[in-house]
Amino acid sequence: xxxETKQKAAIWRRPLVDKPVDDVYLAWLYKRPSYGVEEALGLxxxxxxxxxxxxxxxxxxxxxxxxxxxxxxxxxxxASVVLLPYRFTDEVNKVLVFTEDEQEAEIARExxxxxxxxxxxxxWILEDEIQVDFYVAVPAIMPKLIPLRNKLxxxxxxxxxxxxxxxxxxxxxxxxDGLEYTVEDERLIKTRxxxxxxxxxxxxxxLKTVIQDICTFKPSS
Length: 221
Fold this sequence. Notes:
The chain is α/β, with parallel strands linked by helices. It has two domains: 2-85 and 180-215, 2-Layer Sandwich (Ribulose 1,5 Bisphosphate Carboxylase/Oxygenase), CATH 3.30.190; 95-177, CATH 3.40.50.790. Helix content is 33%, strand content 16%. It contains seven helices and seven strands; from the N terminus they run ααβββαβαβααββα. The protein has helices spanning 2-12, 37-51, 102-110, 120-126, 149-152, 168-177, 200-215, and strands spanning 58-64, 79-82, 95-98, 115-117, 134-137, 179-184, 188-195. The longest helix has 16 residues, at 200-215. The chain starts with a helix and ends in a 6-residue tail after the last helix. Belongs to the universal ribosomal protein uL1 family. Keywords: Mitochondrion, Ribonucleoprotein, Ribosomal protein, Transit peptide.
């Protein structure tokens, strides 16, 4: 019986076949197919027509990262906001601008800030009276925002996330129109990058932009 069990195990461990010869087959007996980006997009567009699903559905990507470093350390999970070359949604994020300079406040309003203010906003945010998607600030007000550090966490204004600076229009453009992605479960990024009805070259351009932004978080050593 032991010999028979070994023979059966050997059968189930046999190498997977590259390509099925028929339209109907057991998927687990064959290697998972791999396609280039352009070919994969062509198949998605083809299946959309065959399945009569919405051509305006979003295209998502799953990116698995190797977060391991030397000496048993790991790269900390991160989040980023990136401007894509081709927008695929009319959604606009709500952005709050911290400033106590009236001229800067006026510039913020003119460029689409949802909320503009200074120290008086801190209490309202702590009490959940104000909720927006992103928070940006000018350097002069940062000492007064320290009570918000634990509340806002990764959305606390910082130069590393490009949410702290003097160029208010630039920050508003990034956070109102940008795409946010985060590392989930310590190593996975899942985010939408386009709509299926967009030209293939535009979808690929958006994909490249996201991948390039992810690569900026790669440690130098």
